Amino acid sequence: MASIPLFIFFLILFIMYTYIFLENKDYSFSLNNGSFIGFILFFLLYFLLIVFHELIHGLFFKVFKKDRKVKFGFKNGFAYATSPHSFYSKGKFIWICLTPFTFITLILLSAVSLGFIPVNLFVNMASLHAAACVGDFYWVFLLSRHPGNILVEDTEQGMTVYLNN
């Protein structure tokens, strides 16, 4: 349920960005004026964005542990990337969590700022993606509450945190 308030927060933030920096004053959202094909294309694009998001996770699993295997899949309707039985420092795991949000947001911001994509597509896609990052933000929140030197084990069910003495 946390993704709905997160979506609203980022929707307002990205609308404000387009209003202030792009001087766009006509953002609108309507399900009535769009075509069914446009609706399908939007969600196909969103699906590809989520796959790209998970590929970025996988890339950074490999950046920090070159010798470890990375697995991708879908579970309970969600795409995921995992590197089972790999151990990462707290800082590296936070990088792994936040890099997809950061990269994709910067790509979308650049695309709308340069006029490559329309403002409405940017606001909707960036807000949906940011809301979909709720799990990544949650892991970062949990890790930030662990003081000291810890190791994070990535598992197919989530993560396990160990004190590193």
UniProtKB/TrEMBL annotation:
Signal peptide: none annotated. InterPro entries: DUF3267 (IPR021683). Coiled coil: none annotated. It holds the Pfam family DUF3267. Keywords: Membrane, Transmembrane, Transmembrane helix. The keyword Transmembrane helix applies. The chain crosses the membrane at residues 5-22, 34-61, 93-116, 122-141. This is DUF3267 domain-containing protein.
